[in-house]
Amino acid sequence: MSISAINTRNPFRGQVARKTPRSPIPGFPLALGFTVFWLGLIVLLPLAGVFFKTATLGPAEIWNIASSERVLAALRLSFGTALLAALLNAVFGLLVAWVFVRYEFPGKSLFDAAIDLPFALPTAVAGIALTALYAPNGWIGSLLEPLGLKVAYTPLGIVVALTFIGLPFVVRTVEPVLRDIEREFEEAAASLGATRTQTIVRVILPSILPALLTGFALAFARGVGEYGSVIFIAGNIPFVSEIAPLLIVIRLEEFNYAGATTVAALMLVVSFAMLLAINALQAWSNRHRSRHPAGATKEN
Amino acid sequence: MSTVNPAVIARGALGSATTEAPWVRYMLVALALTFLAAFLLLPLVSVFTEALRNGLGTYVEALTDADALAAIKLTLIASAIAVPANLVFGVAAAWAITKFEFRGKTFLTTLIDLPFSVSPVVAGLVYVLMFGASGWARPLLDTTNIQIIFAVPGIVLATIFVTFPFVARELIPLMQEQGTDDEQAALSLGANGWQTFWHVTLPNVRWALLYGVLLCNARAMGEFGAVSVVSGHIRGKTNTMPLHVEILYNEYNFAAAFAVASLLAGLALLTLGLKSLLETRYGSELARRQKH
Asked: What is the ipTM of this complex?
């Protein structure tokens, strides 16, 4: 023990000590070996196959498929509806998180458990339930129809399904950060003459902004790839309400592997970019939490 | 002598500046609860009302139908394989990542989360490209005569893929917080590696492990997109419960579709109930989490 402690303090040995695990705990080769092997076999190798298959098509054919009207329409729809739903969730998710952290009301714990329902409810079940509700003869659909608002079997229905799916991402990301904000900073702002609105805009919002953006990005990323809850309510009309994942399924059923794979590769590239962005946001959020005065976390 | 305590005045004045006026509070609570009720509770209620619309007889009939029973059985088989597989992986990954220092650790953690950012349809597609009729790993199969796509192994693989990170992501933050002191103490007292793992590490993380398994199982039983792509939808053979719901729904057999869906909704409610129980009872033994 004392030798390794000296080693890490020695500037010349420090590098070596960091590279090789000098932990007295056994099992490193087995645990890491199995992790990398299983990850490679189940996730990385199959995913690499998508890019491998796309690469064999050649640039001309990839461009042909990717720039076709139907593919572009599907991608535009998937990204557009996911963006709209994530924005809705950012607004309502923040509201829900705020109400749950700051106020007391009857039935709070029941509603709190219900927030995670979209994580637990199978997407196909959510899909048929939302369709039943928003169809012209459904509980909500029949209320909206006299207003001239058609939700089921239109792109609006997709937004409803994606809002359902994405809500917990925003609430559960913002909640802990909001809870950590120390009230002393709001009192300090108030005692220095800030109005409540000023305190909210200049003290509270800046400290939860990274978390809110992370939640937004998570909801957006999930929405872009969502399939089960959408296909029942969407109507699935090509060029109008046909999402990108559905187009992949249709191409596969036609045995058009080139078409399916190219769309999948495009979506994967976007997913990877989103994942990197989310990681960067989360790192920023964590740094922000430890640095920003109002977001200082209590040691627990 | 009636003195007014200045502190009381100050606190009263600040009180109005550090919280909202009562009417604002009531309005915000009402708005949030209306939104939750309309978006979350109403769909759940509608599953059960639609399922029972044609009476209990139709409901029971839909669930005892041979194809429905086969779908239930297949769902149970797929999750009975996928969940333990991800449990073992999650424990191994968390052990490697939290008990040791090595280069590329952050990258490895990101890769483990990767399946969450991949569309379920793409998760199914990757196995079709691998093991399908003209798949690149096909030569491996032809010698052994194993069918993967449009068969049970493909469904299990797709389920493992989409539930891959669940257990690992519950364990990693918690084991990171706990450090290695307990394990080092056990080892210095003469325990071997496995003894340390079974008697020290595992009891330390048991509730987080159960929590991860719970969420993993809910997703495994409910997965639709990925399984749909590899299944081939052969009735009574390669249909899981969510796929059976889709088939019944597309045949306009709504009562039966919602009957099978109500079983899945019941599973979701059970999962949420157990999850809340774990959070209130053992909240301190679960890590501060970033939900996904």
From this structure: 0.89
